[in-house]
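[Target chain]
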Amino acid sequence: MIIFMVIVTIVTKQTRERSASYEVVQPMNDHGAMCVVDPSTDTVFHVVDYDNGRLRQQLERFTTGDSVRLTLDRVSGRGTVWEATWQ
């Protein structure tokens, strides 16, 4: 039983974390949220948190159509929103 639980945790972690090159589809708003799309899957991600203030400041400058390579981690307890970190 313990081995099964460890495997489930590893699989869950892998599906929560996504590293890719994303395209900005909605630039950062006044609340610090932005939307990016993974062009290879057409999946849109709503980014609401950032690893650090420097990353947030740099992403504030991105406009629609810009590309950026990020790692996105699902924010637990917040539905389908994501935290961005530099890859």
